[in-house]
Amino acid sequence: MKKLSIIKTITLLFVLVLIFYGCFGGYWFSSEQDQQATQNQIEPELNISKSDSKHQLSDISHNAPLQAALPVQKDADTTNKGKMDYDSDWCIAAKDLNQQDIDYYHRELEDWNLSSGRISPPLLDGYGADRSQYLVPYMASTYDALWQQIENDNEYAMIAAFGRYDFDIESQRKIAQRLVVKGHTGTALSHLVQIELNNAEMIYKKTGQMNADIEEHIYKALAYTAFGIKRFDLDAAFTYIIMVSSADFPPELKPLYSLGKDNKINNYINELEELIDKARTIGNVIIAPPDEGPKAAKHDFETSLAYLSRAYGYELQALKGVLPDTTGAMLEASECVQKQMEFFGDLERGRSRAK
């Protein structure tokens, strides 16, 4: 436990940083020393206790990742003899590429998935996607041992904390923000979206009406979602859509009705990006621009967008309706996305006939 004078100094510094950096706070600048200093000093948002956090995290941890819903395209379509080169403008791996290039595509995609943190903690029954194996040792660690790994910037340990009930929501928020600074998009952004929407819902259930705090949480959720979309990652968008389209989510909180398209979302997105860029500069973290990502990432984005367009078309259009035009344009169904949608339809009809 820190001495009282140190606590007061840290608390004062935190308040000043919060005022200076605006709505998203100063968690983005977490070095190992920063984490140790603030770990027990910042009051959790809405005074969420550990018992309350456990209830929320139970709901959060059972949201399946987007990739788990996508059809697997591992084998080449041998009936299609006209194959394309990997570096050409192909669309559907299983139809357009030979088996060697399909294997390369999956290796490249797997490397990108790991580097962008698209790893989900195993569920309570032990089930998880293949990449959850990287988190298994950390899920079994003691609380103190896991915190030590997190303070050493172990990214797998950080992600594992999202599936642990002994990590309160505020700690998880700071960990997720640190991961985003390090270049993660998938699980980290999804978790931040979940936290913001859960907070908005909790406040609404207490007050029964919209207020500035609720709007701020919704804007933050949209900013995190937009940040992922602009980096060819739809995991946060999938999480957002799943949560706001659920039957128990108050319709009054859906941005299509409560916020509409205005300049505030632009301000939140710009502030978020400025904070992340500044934190990366301070921490000497170098991240390649989104348009320099691997070809597999962009094709996976198209595949994910095709799935969302088929399964959640209305909700996707509602999300597009409140995002800035440049970000919303990335959710337009290109010619390739339309081909992917037709391909998914053919797969579904084939499975139905096989039953």
Describe this structure in words.
- The protein is mostly helical and 355 residues long.
- The chain has one domain (4-354).
- The chain is built from 18 helices and no strands.
- The protein has helices spanning 4-21, 32-38, 50-61, 93-96, 99-115, 136-139, 143-151, 155-161, 169-181, 186-207, 212-229, 235-244, 255-258, 263-283, 295-311, 313-322, 325-328, 335-354.
- α8 (155-161) packs antiparallel against α9 (169-181) and α10 runs antiparallel to α11 (212-229).
- The chain is globular, with a radius of gyration of 21 Å.
- The protein starts with a helix and ends with a helix.
- The model is unreliable at 1-21 and 30-63 (pLDDT under 50).
Offer a few descriptive terms:
disordered N terminus, 18 helices, globular, 355 residues
Blueprint (SSEs and pairs):
Blueprint: H1 4-21, H2 32-38, H3 50-61, H4 93-96, H5 99-115, H6 136-139, H7 143-151, H8 155-161, H9 169-181, H10 186-207, H11 212-229, H12 235-244, H13 255-258, H14 263-283, H15 295-311, H16 313-322, H17 325-328, H18 335-354
Helix pairs in contact: 5-15, 7-8, 8-9, 9-10, 10-11, 10-12, 11-12, 11-14, 15-18
Which structural class should the secondary elements be placed in? Answer: mainly alpha
Uncertain residue segments: 1-21, 30-63
| SSE order | HHHHHHHHHHHHHHHHHH
Major sheet size, sense and barrel closure: none
Cα-based radius of gyration, to the nearest Å: 21 Å
**First-last Cα distance:** 62 Å
Task: Tally the beta strands.
Answer: 0
Number of domains: 1
User: What is the helix tally?
Assistant: 18
How would you describe the oligomerization state of the chains in this entry? single chain
- Average of pLDDT: 79
> What fraction of the residues are assigned to beta strands by DSSP?
under 5%
The backbone outline, from C-alpha atoms, is globular
Helix content: 55-70%
